[in-house]
Amino acid sequence: MRTFRLRPSHPALVLLLAALSTACNIVSSPPSVDSPLYVANSGSASIAIYAPFTNGNQAPSRTISGGNTMLASPSGVTLNAAGELFVANSSAKSITVYALGATGNAAPIRTISGAFTLLDNPQGIALDAAGNLYVANAGAITSSITVYGPGAMNNAAPINTISGASTGLDHPQGVILNATGNIYVANASMTTNSITVYAPGATGNTAPTSTISGASTGLANPIGVGLDGTGNLYVANSTGVPNSITVYAPGASGNIAPTSNHQRDQHRARQPTGRGPRSHREALRR
Questions:
Q1: Is residue 275 part of a domain?
Q2: Using an 8 Å Cβ cutoff, are 12 and 226 in contact?
Q3: Distance of alpha carbon 232 from alpha carbon 13, whole angstroms
Q4: Which residues pair with 20 in a beta bridge?
Q5: Which of 18, 73, 155, 260 is 20 to 30 Å from the Cα of 228, by its Cα?
Q6: What angle (nearest 5°) sits at the alpha carbon of residue 26, between those of residues 103 and 131?
Q7: What is the span of the domain harbouring residue 11?
Q8: Residue 191 — pLDDT band, cuts 50, 70, 90?
Q9: pTM of the full structure
């Protein structure tokens, strides 16, 4: 899960508080504040779409679900400027793309899948300004960020890959890009809690330009990352009592304390329901 593009006019915590989850990604569609909310539900293999400002026990306005959708443990969602919906399917090792307004048992308009794609347990996904798709792969053997050109489909090889021991990638869960193309990645494994940042166009076994990691950071199984209009970094942490959103100033690096720490009990973000560590969490707005 795990990527969020926050707007300065939108309360920055809304999406990330809803995203205290290891199995659902939540994204607000571009470009306006009053946009629908898209939620990937891993357990039910569905995408739920909620009307702007939905609150409380409300049914989704649309749901994408069924055999034709090819959804399989969806773990990440994002939308492009045309309103096409991109979904990372972790168990199927695929990316499925749906037309604007897709609903019900809708088939994807294109799919990225196959050995050449190098997809391996894809989690968070993000798009850059040019429409390139970035995928965080939390593979059992290899952790990577794979990048696909606009319109990529079928068994397409990535146009770029970040992978290797020098990268600091370790079961990456969330990815997002800032306005200048820097790549922010949330890493959450049994031994690693970190945010690694890479220069625009980074490729291969490249070291991050900066890393946020250490006991003072408050990172605890970080699974989602977001940026606001001034460059503050928001991280959803799914481990700890209570769960938390930690916030870091632009350019933060090293074993640095967050500028603020928003916890579950303060904002009504709930613990997960359902089965196992990949079950989805209940998402509530304030």
A1: no
A2: yes
A3: 12
A4: none
A5: 73
A6: 80
A7: 3-267
A8: confident
A9: 0.85
What's the order of all strands across the beta sheet hosting 193-198? Answer: 172-177, 183-188, 193-198, 210-213
Residue 62 CB partners (closer than 8 Å, separation 6+) = 48, 49, 103, 104
What is the number of structural domains in the chain?
1
Render pLDDT for 10-46 as a digit per residue (tens, 0 to 9). 334 444 444 444 334 566 455 455 688 999 999 999 9
Measured between alpha carbons, how far is 88 from 134 in angstroms, rounded to an integer? 11
Give the tens place of pLDDT for each residue, 117-144.
999 999 999 999 999 999 999 998 899 9
CATH number of the domain that 244 lies in?
2.130.10.10
The answer to whether residue 4 scores a pLDDT higher than 50 is: no
Considering the domain boundaries, does residue 272 fall inside one?
Answer: no
Q: What is the mean pLDDT of residues 157-182?
A: 97
What does the chain come to in residues? 286
Q: What is the 3-state secondary structure (H, E, C) of the chain?
A: CCEEECCCCCCCHHHHHHCCCCCCCEEECCCCCCCCEEEEECCCCEEEEECCCCCCCCCCCEEEECHHHCCCCEEEEEECCCCCEEEEECCCCEEEEECCCCCECCCCCEEEECHHHCCCCEEEEEECCCCCEEEEEECCCCEEEEEECCCCCECCCCCEEEECHHHCCCCEEEEEECCCCCEEEEEECCCCEEEEEECCCCCECCCCCEEEECHHHCCCCEEEEEECCCCCEEEEECCCCCCEEEEECCCCCECCCCCEEEEHHHHCCCCECCCCCCCCECCCCC
